[in-house]
Backbone:
């Protein structure tokens, strides 16, 4: 299964990827799965030519409880 979604304000802005949620911690107890998910994300971004990839580690399925202030933005 392949999925790509690009949301860009301008034609030259689509070269960054932000991943907000942790990914699998709501379904798996082993946090080492995050290492594999991040490696897979990096590979996918390399394939499509994305220059920057950031992870924000918001808790899965509870974005509404996360602080809106995040100095990493």
Residues:
């Amino acid at each position: 299964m392949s999925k790509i979604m690009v949301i860009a304000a301008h034609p030259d802005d689509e070269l960054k990827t932000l991943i907000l949620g942790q990914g699998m911690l709501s379904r798996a107890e082993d946090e080492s799965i995050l290492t594999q998910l991040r490696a897979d994300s990096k590979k996918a971004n390399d394939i499509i030519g994305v220059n920057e990839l950031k992870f924000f580690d918001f808790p899965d399925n509870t974005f509404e409880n996360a602080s809106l202030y995040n100095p990493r933005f």
